[in-house]
Amino acid sequence: MGYVGGKTIEELQKKADFFRISSAGLGESHPHGITITEEAPNYSTRGERI
User: Fold this and answer.
1) Looking at the domain assignment, is residue 41 inside a domain?
2) Number of domains comprising the chain
3) Domain range for 14
4) Burial of 12 by CB count in 10 Å (0-12 exposed, 13-18 middle, 19+ buried)?
5) SS3 assignment, position 49
6) For residues 29 and 22, what is the distance between their CA atoms, to the nearest angstrom?
7) 29: which residues sit within 8 A by CB, 6+ positions away?
8) Where are the beta strands (DSSP E) in the chain?
9) Contact indicator for 16, 6 with CB cutoff of 8 Å
10) H/E run at residue 9
């Protein structure tokens, strides 16, 4: 809520803009050309939930 400046759920709903993106768009929004030497244990790029 702090990201959009809302102090309540109602303010969040009024101020926030929500965008649906495709899985391809999600992949494109991540950095490219980076070599990962060790996978983070708490992050998945395949949509798997912990």
Assistant:
1) no
2) 1
3) 1-36
4) middle
5) coil
6) 11
7) 21
8) none
9) yes
10) helix 9-15
Give the per-residue pLDDT at 49: 55
pLDDT digit string (tens) for 16-46?
888 899 999 988 888 888 887 787 888 776 6
Angstrom distances, CA of residue 5 to CA of 11, 19, 29, 30, 44: 8, 18, 24, 25, 29
List Cα–Cα distances, 45 to 5, 11, 18, 22, 25, in angstroms: 29, 31, 21, 13, 12
42-to-7, 18, 34, 38, 49 alpha-carbon distances in Å: 29, 25, 18, 12, 9
| Full-model pTM | 0.37
Whether residue 9 lies inside any domain: the answer is yes
Q: Is residue 48 part of a domain?
A: no
Residue with tokens 């990962």: 36
Residue 21 lies in a domain: yes
